[in-house]
Amino acid sequence: MSYDVDLFVIGGGSAGVRLSRMASGFGARVALAESGRLGGTCVNVGCVPKKLLVYGSEFRTELADMAGFGWHVEGVSHDWKKLFANKDAEIARLNTIYGRILERAGVVVHHGRARITDPHTVEVNGQRITAERIAVCTGGFPRRPQIPGGDLAITSDEAFELEACPKRVIVVGGGYIGLEFAGIFKGYGAEVTLVHHGRHVLRGFDQSVRERIEDEVRAHGIDLRTGSEIQRLSRTDEGIVAELSPRGVASDDLVLCEDPDRLVADVVLYAIGRVPATDGLGLDELGVERDRHGAIVVNGEYETSVPHILALGDIIAYPRLTPVALAQGMYVARKLYGPGSEAIRYDTVATAVFSQPNIGTVGLTEDEARGRCACVDVYESSFRPMKLTMTGRQEKTYMKILVDGDTDKVLGFHMIGPDAGEIIQGLAVALTCGVTKTQLDATIGIHPTAAEEFVTMRTRARRLDD
Fold first, then answer.
1. Residue 185: Cβ-neighbour burial (10 angstroms; 0-12, 13-18, 19+)
2. Domain 5-141+275-337 class in CATH
3. Which of 180, 163, 162 minimizes the C-alpha distance to 171?
4. What is the DSSP letter of 68?
5. 80: nearest Cα among 90, 92, 68, 88
6. To the nearest 10°, the Cα dihedral for 165, 168, 174, 177?
7. Mind giving me the DSSP string for 327-395?
8. Alpha-carbon distance 337 to 332, whole Å?
9. 46, 254, 317, 437: least surrounded by Cβ within 10 Å?
């Protein structure tokens, strides 16, 4: 059968752009539909603008640090509107670049919302286009609170549109987005309370990292309320009132306790997870399987339960990170239209949290290592960064290495401190190559740097065995 295109991609984010561009480069006829701005979450309301705001927010503490080095700065002020204007200009520049990339690759771009009408047909802007394969790469969107007054809250999407920096902010959610925005608002001078229902923030991260970052967040001046939930929001003359309750246990269910605490804020930002953007695509009508969280279920080749329909990126239940989406797009393009590709290794995917201070991690957590290995050697180091030794800031850098005690193979690296993401990236390469502790010990460090600590930790902190 003859089709209009070989591949129709729905979604112009990281996965969709990489897949369509690479597939077209391999000779496939490719079309792409995007209802919003090209670049997806990462470029428009995610990684890029958030990191720009993080950079700007860090200058407040750096200005304070300058006094220790003899600098005296008078009359410093901040222009929020200029910050956001420059941020918007940078995003517009990237949107244009994405468009040019697709145009040069020969991808036909349809600006509109697409719907799949059968396994080989997509409808967009009233036009029906047939394709041998269809790839769904529509990403996700922030989950909104289901509480009385929840409509008074904003999500990370709306945070990038604030016309002024709020003076009082409540951030709800102890994941990486919540921690990052708490640090951002604090850096621009807001009074920040971070509310998280769990006992510790950053579920899924190494326990040592979770506990130590909580200490640093509090030392940064953020009021961290773990084990708490907001019952309701209401608007008064004071601002937005949040009624807070600790979580109590009744039988096997978590319930809200009586006597709620009361907080008042100008902005309440919910960062409680993201939802796969699957609605309105025609997936249910076609019988495309989704899990209980709404993510599309795929096999190892990113094929859905319906032949000829694939799914990649944040819409599936894999690590929801931009580099992962890019890797998936590359893999599928090479597999279908190119020379083929090795399967993606998810066990050595590194990640960073741009909290203040930063977090970088790759490999197994201590709990995961204990569950897989009979003997685990733990190496740890905590120190005050050299840059801060002449300042009043007491922030500590923390590093951790997990090693299989029987094979000497490194299982994981974890770090809290300046440039943690930059440092962990290189260690992710080493972990992917199967680095051993002996090889780390044989590596000459760069002095004086924080990174050298990873190759000079010779004394084992503890051994975990049966």
1. buried
2. alpha beta
3. 180
4. G
5. 88
6. -10
7. HHHHHHHHHHHSS--PPP--TT--EEE-SSS-EEEEE--HHHHHHH-SEEEEEEEEE--GGGTTSS---
8. 8
9. 254
How is 223-241 classified by DSSP, letter by letter? EEEESEEEEEEEEETTEEE
Residues of the chain with pLDDT under 50: 248-256
CB atoms within 10 A of CB 82: 9
Phi-psi region of 282 (alpha: psi -120 to 50; beta: other; left: phi over 0): left
Joined tokens for residue 185: 């608002």
Closest CA relative to residue 359, chosen from 194, 181, 188, 206 = 206
Which pLDDT tens digit goes with each residue over 380-396? 999 999 999 999 999 99
Q: Residue 168: which of 192, 194, 186, 196 has the closest Cα?
A: 192
- Fold for domain 150-272? FAD/NAD(P)-binding domain (3.50.50)
Domain 351-460, what fold? Enolase-like; domain 1 (3.30.390)
Give the per-residue pLDDT at 24: 98
pLDDT at 259: 59
CA 462 to CA 267: how far, in whole Å? 44
Q: What angle do CA 18, 21, 24 make, to 5 degrees?
A: 140
442 Cβ neighbours under 8 A, 6+ residues apart: none
DSSP 8-state symbol, 444: P
Q: What is the pLDDT of residues 121-170, one digit of tens each?
A: 999 999 999 999 999 999 999 999 999 999 999 999 999 999 999 999 99
Which pLDDT score is estimated for 1? 77
Question: Which residues does 52 contact at the CB level (< 8 Å), separation at least 6?
Answer: 87, 90
With contact defined as beta carbons under 8 Å apart, do 12 and 38 qualify? yes
Where exactly does CATH 3.30.390.30 map onto the chain? 351-460
Which pTM was predicted? 0.95
CATH 3.50.50.60 in the chain, residues? Answer: 5-141+275-337, 150-272
CB count in 10 Å sphere of residue 433: 9
Catalytic residues: 447
